[in-house]
Specification:
alpha/beta; binds NADP nicotinamide-adenine-dinucleotide phosphate; FAD/NAD(P)-binding domain; 21 strands; 14 helices; 2 domains
Length: 488
């Protein structure tokens, strides 16, 4: 017998909004989206650092059925993506489902339902819990002695303090990942001096950006087919180049390595500086970065690359192990995220009281990245092992949402009371995943946030095609299903 399952979605970022849209499309409107902040947008709301650009082409970094002809560049600026997500929330009619300022503190599965507590102390019950809380959102602060002693402002790039005046200041930028290489060129012409603290050199590909003309944008508005073609073309390019290179295609990998090397050789003329920027691991082992501006920025007269290890932070700056004191007024930490803290700080207790900490004591693992044994009717968007290389996370989330909706429909149809993957299927999937990892570039020896606490890349080791196939429909043989009680 059909029923109206109560569904709680955690987070109104890109994947939470998407989940809401997919449920609405399935005719299910008994859901609420709980958002801890007061705006939608997730990572695009939180990250406002100067130079923020999404390095996935804009036409691909949008919901497939909601193209945006208004992108101003081939690669969207962070603010534009935030505007896009706000607009989608309005146009899709999602706002009535969103509870702002409602942080989910934790949830326990008892008597066939999720009993949920918010940080404010409200209690809710739901039949289905969907975590769409993102994974690169808990800033990682470096464990450097004396950090608290710094006399000037210190902030993490993902919590940019716009009240701090950078003009003329001596700024220390810690970290040269995707974030650091975007910030450096954006601030170098404003600050008095920029000291970029590099622990490991990065491979950089040239950034093929392009500003769309008014004519190009008008064409996209008038001929929506153009946007769909661009989506498909960029998707195919990524799928057949990057996505193949990183999972073991040696020829493509060598091509990317060569392109990166040429980029370095051509753009850094001083051999001594070039040597300090030369990575000693395979291109793609860490996330491959795009930038045509970083090398230029670091060669400006007011910029300095500091690659001597940091000894400690002192009130007036950073002391490196060569005894040098780098005097600073402001310290920016582009030091990444706790990338494996899925769903945290939320606590969860599944069936029989199994906690998330117990289930993941050896590191987070999931069944096909979307579900967890022992946690019935809990689904994850961009959960552990999702394909998070350089492909559009929106396209990945769409496949996951479609998969999850198929299970939720069965719950709504009254066929299933609860569903969770079996331990055997989850173990089998992850054993296969770990074995496939050996061929990937992420396992070729480098430090990166892809690696979990066991040193295994927490990512999808197969093709995007296999991901789509695995997400096409749930294999119910892999699930432990409690059928819904039949009415007498
Ligand atoms: P990240 O890739 O983890 O880079 C962190 C940087 O900080 C690295 O250079 C790291 O050095 C350095 N670092 C960390 N701890 C340090 C310490 N104690 N001392 C000195 N250096 C330290 O973080 P991210 O740059 O924020 O990027 C994270 C991910 O966010 C990206 O890979 C990407 O998926 C996403 N992102 C995407 C975009 C985009 O355009 N799509 C933009 C920004 C972020 P090591 O290399 O030695 O570890």
């Amino acid at each position: 017998m059909a029923r109206s399952p109560q569904i709680v979605i955690v987070g109104a970022g890109m994947s939470g909004l998407l989940m809401g849209m997919r449920l609405m499309a399935a005719g299910i409107d008994t859901f609420t989206i709980h958002e801890k902040a007061d705006r939608v947008g997730g990572t695009w709301r939180d990250n406002t650092y100067p130079g923020l650009i999404c390095d996935v082409p804009a036409q691909l970094y949008c919901y497939a059925d909601r193209p945006n002809p208004d992108w101003r560049h081939r690669f969207a600026r962070g603010g534009e993506i935030q505007t896009y997500l706000e607009r989608v929330a309005d146009q899709a009619g999602l706002r009535r489902f969103i509870r702002f300022g409602s942080e989910i503190a934790g949830a326990a599965f008892r008597d066939g339902r999720w009993h949920i507590e918010t940080a404010r102390g409200d209690r809710l019950a739901a039949d289905v819990l969907i975590a769409a809380s993102g994974f690169l959102h808990r800033p990682r602060y470096p464990d450097i002695p004396g950090l608290d002693s710094f006399a000037g402002p210190v902030f993490h790039a993902a919590r940019w303090n716009h009240a701090v005046e950078l003009a003329g200041a001596r700024v220390g930028l810690l970290g040269t990942g995707s974030t650091g290489v975007q910030i450096a060129p954006a601030v170098v012409d404003i600050v008095g001096k920029l000291s970029v603290f590099q622990r490991t050199p990065q491979w950089l590909l040239p950034f093929p950006d392009h500003e769309y003309s008014a004519f190009e944008r008008a064409s996209g508005r008038r001929l929506p087919l153009l946007n769909r073609i661009a989506y498909r073309v960029f998707s195919l390019i990524f799928e057949w180049t990057f996505a193949r290179a990183v999972i073991g295609n040696r020829v493509l990998q060598a091509c990317f390595q060569r392109l990166c090397q040429l980029n370095l050789n051509r753009n850094v003329k001083d051999p001594a500086l070039r040597a300090r920027l030369q990575p000693d691991y395979r291109a793609g082992c860490k996330r491959l970065l795009f930038s045509s501006a970083f090398y230029k920025a670091i060669q400006k007269p007011n910029a300095e690359l500091v690659d001597t290890a940091i000894e400690r932070v002192v009130p007036s700056g950073i002391r490196t192990t060569d005894g040098r004191l780098h005097e600073l007024d402001v310290l920016v930490l582009a030091t990444g995220f706790h990338a494996h803290d899925y769903m945290r700080p939320m606590w969860l207790a599944g069936a029989d009281g199994l906690t998330l900490d117990e289930a993941w004591k050896d590191g987070p693992e999931a069944y096909r990245a979307v579900a967890l044994p022992g946690f019935p009717n809990l689904f994850m968007m961009i959960g552990p092992g999702s394909p998070v290389g350089n492909f559009s996370l929106i396209a990945i989330a769409e496949a996951q949402a479609d998969y999850i909706v198929q299970l939720v429909r069965r719950i709504a149809a009254g066929e299933i009371a609860s569903v969770a993957p079996t331990r055997a299927a989850t173990a089998r999937f992850n054993a296969e995943r770990r074995a496939a990892m050996r061929d990937t570039v992420w396992s070729t020896g480098c430090r990166s946030w892809y690696l979990d606490q066991r040193g295994v890349p927490d990512i999808w080791p197969w093709s995007i095609g296999r991901f789509r196939r695995d997400m096409r429909r749930p294999d119910l043989a892999d699930y432990e299903i409690v059928p819904a009680a039949r009415p007498r």
